[in-house]
Amino acid sequence: MPLSKERLDNFKNKLEKEKASLEAELKELNPDKLPDFGSDVDHFDEEADEAEELTTNVSIANAIKERLGDIDSSLRKIGLGTYGNCEECGKEIDMDVLEASPESRLCKNCKHGQKSI
């Protein structure tokens, strides 16, 4: 059964709020700004900490960017009228899956199939 306009609007609002939150988090991380490792070779521990922080921030930023991509895809699907359909098998994604993760692209069966690969 296709999603009602009310449910679609609800999911759209959730997705837009999550997108704004993730964009703010990404901006705060600022993964494109390299730390000043400096030329002081007597503080290797400090430079190692900075390198570790950069690596962590880049990893977190990549995960956020991937999630933003899924959210953008879901928002496009709402506009196209295809939101809530599994990208793999085409069946409707269960409401409990969408409630838990509105940017879900796959139904439970297809998600489960991907994990076993």
TrEMBL record:
Pfam families: zf-dskA_traR. InterPro entries: DnaK_N, Znf_DskA_TraR. Gene3D superfamilies: DksA, coiled-coil domain. A zinc finger (dksA C4-type) spans 86-110. This is Zinc finger DksA/TraR C4-type domain-containing protein. Keywords: Coiled coil, Metal-binding, Zinc, Zinc-finger. One of its GO terms (molecular function) is zinc ion binding. Signal peptide: none annotated. Residues 81-113 form the Zinc finger DksA/TraR C4-type domain. The keyword Magnesium does not apply. The lineage of its organism: Bacteria, Candidatus Wolfeibacteriota. Residues 5-32 form a coiled coil.
